[in-house]
Amino acid sequence: MLEVKQVHVAFKNQLILKNASFTVEDSMIACLVAPNGRGKTALLNVICGLVPSKTGGIKCNGISLRSKRRAFLHQLFYVQSTEDLFGNLTVKDHLRYVKKMWQSTIDITKVLTRVELTNSQNKQIQQLSLDKKQQVLLAMAIVSDAPVLLMDEPLNGLDVEATRKFEEIFVELRGQGKTIVFASHQLDSIERVSDKLLFLKDQQILTVENMGQDVEMQYGEMYLT
Ligand SMILES: Nc1ncnc2c1ncn2[C@@H]1O[C@H](COP(=O)(O)OP(=O)(O)OP(=O)(O)O)[C@@H](O)[C@H]1O
Ligand SMILES: [Mg+2]
């Protein structure tokens, strides 16, 4: 479970979030939704402690980022983007590293099969296309076995088939009890997999349950009128 309470984020004179709060329970997928530049990435960076929030607090399974940073970080997995992968290391190197760092017992071979990376496991990251790199990030999240998984635009650069595969895996992970938060502009995917929509608007987070409504219409009402 992830609890974000009254976070305040500003860069120089630009206020991004003011007293913003939300909760995402176990076995739940929440999607951060907003137009470019509203602060989705900034919020993910705040949640994992890369960007400080002056006020409020963040907890993963009851463990506070402020007072128990190390234990808190063990509860979550987040790598902001494929740009953060090590170009000259292989796919398998990355998975082994994550397995060790998160002290996980997940079988890397099974994850490679599930994410369809078996044939690329010994390739260097710099040899991979964007969709494969996105698969590596997803595989790393699975291998970490962390209860809370954060992802920033994990569906970027994926074709329809790959997008559907990612959706299937998100749903499987939810079934295993994971708390998943991801930012995306793919409103159709969000409509299919999310339990909660987290709209960033007016420096606040508006939480809306996904009751099967038309997310594109809701987005239009929120941002395009
Ligand atoms: N480290 C930083 N220093 C200064 N300004 C920043 C920093 N990170 C983000 N910003 C600014 O904060 C605002 C929100 O940026 P952010 O990248 O979080 O938006 P986003 O919702 O993720 O957008 P996108 O959909 O394009 O990914 C932008 O105006 C950006 O320029
Ligand atoms: Mg972003």
UniProtKB/TrEMBL annotation:
PROSITE patterns assigned to the protein according to its UniProt record, in alphabetical order: ABC_TRANSPORTER_2
KW Nucleus (keyword) present: no
Keyword list, A-Z: ATP-binding, Nucleotide-binding, Transport
Signal peptide: none
Domain ABC transporter: from-to ranges: 2-224
Keyword Transmembrane helix attached: no
GO molecular function: ATP binding
Descriptive protein name: ABC-2 type transport system ATP-binding protein
Organism field: Candidatus Enterococcus lowellii
Lineage, highest ranks first: Bacteria, Bacillati, Bacillota, Bacilli, Lactobacillales
